[in-house]
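Chapter review: from sequence to fold.
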Amino acid sequence: MIDFQGDHYVINVGALNPDSEMTLMDVLMLCPEVLTDNAKMLNGNFILCVDDIDLYMDIETFLTMVKASEVETIDVYTNPSISQGAGGSDGVINIVYKEAEKDGTTGKVALEGSTYGNGLAYADVKTRKRQVSVRGYALGNQHFARGNYLEGVSFSQRELVEDAHVSVNWDISPKDNLTIKLFQQFIDSKEYYHNTNDTYQSPIKDRLGELTFSYLRTLNDKGAELLTEAGGVFANFSNLEMSQRDASPYFFTELTTPLLIDDLSMIAGWEVSYDNSWYIGLKRQQYLKNDLYVQLNYLHGPWTITLGNRYTILNYWNRNDDEAHKLWSHNRNANSYLVSIGHKWGHHYVQGAFNRDFYIPIIDDFYEDVMGEPMLSTSYETNMVWRTELRYTYQQKNLAIFGSAVHSWKTDLPTPREETTGIRASVTWHQGPFRLTAGANFYHEHCAGDDLIPAQYDNSFTLRLSPALLPGHGWRLSSTLIYHSRQEQYGNHPHLFASLKVNKDLGRHCNIYADFHDLGRHALHVHGTAALYLP
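The token string follows.
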């Protein structure tokens, strides 16, 4: 059901015996580290990929629209700073679809409406002909919200999000593969703030585009591969106060090969990226990053050992339009390390990991307040993050128990040292028409004090329960109950989330469901969705 491979683990979705309406969100409920407290979104610090390509669509919609039966495996990288180059993130989730067994076209179209006038339209399609396959997604989401911003000030919001993603995969030869990805996102948002005397409008427009080329060459029949990728992300953002344009091209090449013996393999690569941010009429900021990395993976019998290092060179340039004669520049470097050892016996697996990572500072972090004036300096330290984790898993054919204890601490901060200790557990079990997933997470956070700032402590926990029942005749009943506790440190309060979902299969090409949720906020939200499937 779950295989461990050093810096990540692999969920074999077929081993979960998914029913026809089980979604990717249902599968990820097994992973205690990836869900937020509302069970509808990934942890915002996780990166979602499809077949190793970043996905910038609305994550919640994607995970609820894609069925588990369409997916082969899910790779969850909990220590991604070396092999994935995702320093500063909590992890990477990579969705690997099943290979089409024959030529043809499949897909679905879904329409959803809910209370408060919210709605979305979603479509995905996959077509294959000989050595070429094309997969595309499209999403339009209309959202309305209203509430109180401050005492005596109310707000209302309207937001339209349009996403389109196309991926072309071409098997040029038995040893050569080319993947091309094109993505575009457009966001049109308007916020209105109302008081007794006036109404203030804050419009926002945001457009994002990406083009990526990935070439994979198989070097031999022992698993040696050379991957080369180049692409760029282009963005345009504007509101009443400013307009910003970004261009971020990148390139990397990576070699994966066995070393000396079949049980030992190496990943080595070079990655370079450039980010040019132009705040029109204000300033221009540029970043150049070079990474050299290597990771060794040893898989022998019950043992799994991983060692890795990523060396990063950072260069910064900043020019303010009101100080055109001044160009501030700076460079620094840092290392990320990973050590992981795991052992399996019978149904049990235990893994220990140590990771040193860093959060790459941006130019604004180097500003200091000097007698009331912001000044650029080089005194800002790179934020180092040290993380230790102990993980345990017990598996049987229809049962999986997942537990982990993690401690992380941040150093070299402009604020006092921060530490977080977490204990996380989840269990999934299925028998006949019944399936149950449950979990509990506990976190203790500590921010050290100094002469001016007192020390702060915060404890929080999350309890989750997700049963599902297949009574037959095309019906599926499922529910999610989550209680999340937060103390006053961050201004949060305990929150209860409840969801009841009813699916009805109307035949081979049509399915409908209704979702009732947010009962814990004393407001009932009703979602209704109808999905049509292509043959």
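Two observations follow directly from the output. The radius of gyration is 24 Å. Residues 59-65 form the longest helix (7 residues).
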